[in-house]
Write a structure and sequence with these properties.
alpha/beta, TIM Barrel, 10 helices, six-stranded parallel beta sheet, Urease, subunit C, domain 1, about 375 residues
């Protein structure tokens, strides 16, 4: 059973910086933060044993976890939300795979009710990230070969089953630039991904309303000095983009390039059913994937999602040299801003009481979702 948490003491990361004090919540919302402002160096070198209190993590690209896959339908999304909540993710998007349309519909029918009523021990499922089937069949990555042409009518029909908050598509496909405009006018956020598009295609997609890029560097045309590709378009023009900081999908040096180039680069897990599980075989949509050596792969060795959770993503960013405050924004606040969530991803009065409590080694001690404590054991 979830336990409401009324007050938490520690070094609290507010939008203005760290405060040594107390956060109070009531009915799931933060009502008060009081204390003394302190700098991050003071927090790091303080002798006190007070913990760090950071905004809960927000993951807009979650295929699975705890042995379950979103495409299973049934109660899979609830189980996935519980696994990621135990790793500090307080809100997420259940992410689909490219598949026959009847399988996508079945997955969304299962997710829909969970978007209305949070599992008591799970993260808030904000809606769906539709990663395909509207992608380039020549750049599937680990997606099954069921790419198809998109229509606004079909997307609206899917949206009636579960709230679609984010759509990945390849803008170079015929008619998709106009579709991006239609989707934005209908209230959907659009990302560029699984694409063979050129630099010019990427710039045009952004001009038509695309908001960001799906797992930057992965499953897109790369950067060459005479053909900048989709990666070049992102580095030159994007404000927002996802990145998978498991240190397998993207080299640390490339992550640092993206951090310098894209102001609001944010982290996603792209996690599979193998997250939080031992080595072995798991499902990823219609694929069977193998978890070994810290990664998840198809039989031909292609990376197929990850085992990452966002608490490890935070530690990885800090290991790359980021301050805790900046790393926190990149696993929480920027994703919230990107999705238009003004009351998540930040610790401030009026926001949801979504937070993580961590020790000085950035290990989780407590997780609170909408004012209720998650059991970490």
């Amino acid at each position: 059973m979830s336990l409401a948490v009324d007050q938490i003491e520690g070094y609290i990361l507010t939008p203005q910086g760290f405060v040594r004090g107390v956060l109070e919540q009531r009915e799931g919302r933060i009502v008060r933060i009081e204390g003394e402002s302190v700098t991050e160096p003071e927090v790091r070198h303080a002798r006190q044993t007070l913990p760090l209190v950071l905004p809960g993590f927000i993951d807009v690209h979650v295929h699975g976890g705890g042995g379950r896959d979103t495409m299973e339908g049934s109660d899979a999304a609830a189980a996935i939300s519980r696994l990621h909540a135990r790793h500090g993710t307080t809100a997420l998007l259940a992410t689909t795979m490219t598949a026959p349309m009847d399988e996508i519909r079945a997955a969304l029918e299962a997710v829909g009710p969970l978007c209305q009523r949070r599992d008591p021990q799970g993260a808030r499922v904000l809606g769906v990230h539709l990663e395909g089937p509207y992608i380039n069949p020549g750049k599937l990555g680990a997606q099954p070969d069921f790419a198809k042409a998109a229509s606004i009518e079909e997307i609206l029909a899917l949206h009636a089953l579960a709230p679609i908050r984010l759509i990945t598509l390849a803008p170079e496909l015929p008619g998709y630039l106009e579709l991006i405009t239609q989707l934005r006018e209908a209230g959907f956020q659009v990302q560029i991904g699984h694409t063979l598009g050129t630099y010019e295609d990427g710039v045009a997609a952004l001009a038509h309303g695309a908001g960001g890029f799906t797992h930057l560097f992965n499953a897109m045309s790369g950067l060459h000095h005479r053909e900048p590709g989709m990666v070049g378009a992102a580095l030159a023009h994007a404000r927002y983009a996802e990145i998978i900081p498991d240190l397998l999908h993207v080299h640390p040096g490339a992550i640092k390039v993206a951090l310098r180039a894209i102001p609001c680069l944010f982290c996603v897990s792209d996690s599979t059913a193998a997250a939080g599980m031992p080595d072995g075989e798991y499902s990823l949509g219609r694929h069977k994937v193998q978890k070994c050596l810290g990664g998840v792969r198809l039989p031909d060795g292609t990376l197929a999602g990850s085992t990452l959770t966002l608490d490890q993503a935070l530690r990885n960013l800090v290991g790359l040299g980021l301050e805790i405050e900046e790393a926190s924004r990149r696993v929480s606040t920027y994703a919230a801003d990107y999705m238009g969530l003004e009351d998540r991803g930040r610790l401030t009065p009026g926001a949801w009481a979504d937070l993580v409590v961590m020790d000085r080694d950035l290990q989780l001690q407590r997780v609170v979702v909408e004012g209720e404590e998650i059991e970490l054991g």
